[in-house]
What we know:
- The chain is of the alpha/beta class.
- It has helices at residues 20-23, 31-38, 51-65, 90-98, 114-127, 151-154, 214-236, 253-263, 274-277, 284-294, and strands spanning 4-12, 17-19, 42-44, 75-79, 104-108, 133-140, 160-168, 173-180, 188-189, 211-212, 245-248, 303-310, 314-321.
- It has two domains: 4-170, 3-Layer(aba) Sandwich (Peroxisomal Thiolase, Chain A, domain 1), CATH 3.40.47; 175-321, Peroxisomal Thiolase, Chain A, domain 1.
- The strands form four sheets. A five-stranded mixed sheet has the order 1-7-6-4-5, sandwiched between helices. The protein has a four-stranded mixed sheet with strand order 8-13-12-11, with helices on both faces. The protein has a two-stranded antiparallel sheet with strand order 2-3.
- Helix 3 (51-65) packs across helix 4 and helix 7 packs across helix 8.
- The radius of gyration is 19 Å and the shape is globular.
- Bound molecules: oxa(dethia)-CoA.
- Oxa(dethia)-CoA binds next to helix 2, helix 6 and helix 7.
Amino acid sequence: MKNVEIIGTGSYVxxxxxxxxxxxxxxxxxxxxxxxxxxxxxxxxxxxxxTSELAAKAxxxxxxxxxxxxxxxxxxxxxxxxxxxxxxxxxxxxxxIIGAENAVCFDVSAACTGFIFALNTATQxxxxxxxxxxxxxxxxxxxxxxxWEDRTTCVLFGDGAGAVVLxxxxxxxxxxxxxxxxxxSKFLYCPAVEVGNPFAAExxxxxxxxxxxxxxxxxxxxxxxxxxxxxxxxASKIDIDDIDYxxxxxxxxxxxxxxxxxxxxxxDKFFVNLHNYGNTSGxxxxxALDEMNKKGMLxxxxxxxxVGFGGGLTWGAAIIEWTM
Length: 324
Ligand code: UT7
């Protein structure tokens, strides 16, 4: 089996910043409620660009950071809950925009855990020697599937994209773990279309909007992140004290605080940027990783845990060593 490492990161967010105060003009809420319950202060909202455009911009930046060209990429995987279309995949659209003409392209659907699932999928392909260089992107325009009349969800999410380039090389992706529970899928749900045709009794009209049981997702999230972190630590025989950073899915600061308490580790180990972007679902982890990379926080040899949870329900983690 080959070894796999991250050789580049990139991200892109739309320009438009929407503050909590602005949201309080749309739904009955306040900066005080949103900040104290979630930690979120503002988010980016796309005025025009769709998911593939955000993904392509983040992807190109990651390719540039890796000092490669788009034609060097032989696999593109996009994790998204908010694709441009049922078909083609967002990854195929990205391929066309960036000119990754030598790549095979497909999407992965695992909501907020999507990036971990996509990273692990690409890693397996590179490990077996099937592909050499993968572009893995998490990209979301959640604002288009938000119920803007539902204050319990619309204040939490935002738009954005993050990407990494993976390549055969050193042992940078040490271990990954993924889990799913379809039985509790209704806790976090966004329908597509129901069955409806001229032969059915009724032609269904369904709106694709996110709905969520926040309290249930909260409880699940703490358990799922705690389990996922413990799982990758145990599987890789690495002690939590040897971990330099944990990059969690950025949904709610209180969830991250609970996880830190459960694991009995300092909040200083967790990288948090949700106050600026809100929950960008599949994009939160690569967006955070790129911010850390750009800030020069990541040093060669650092051990980092990426961990997420989300709709599906799904959860997972990856333990990586920074080799750049
Ligand atoms: O990627 C996965 C995404 N999902 C998550 O991570 C969600 C996990 N859950 C959470 O983050 C939290 O459960 C929320 C932030 C969604 C809610 O926080 P909470 O502390 O669990 O609040 P709650 O649902 O218990 O609601 C408390 C009160 C309710 O009013 P009553 O029944 O006490 O009168 C809500 O109606 O807050 C009310 N409320 C709001 N008030 C002002 C709910 N949303 C809002 C709002 N502004 N935006």
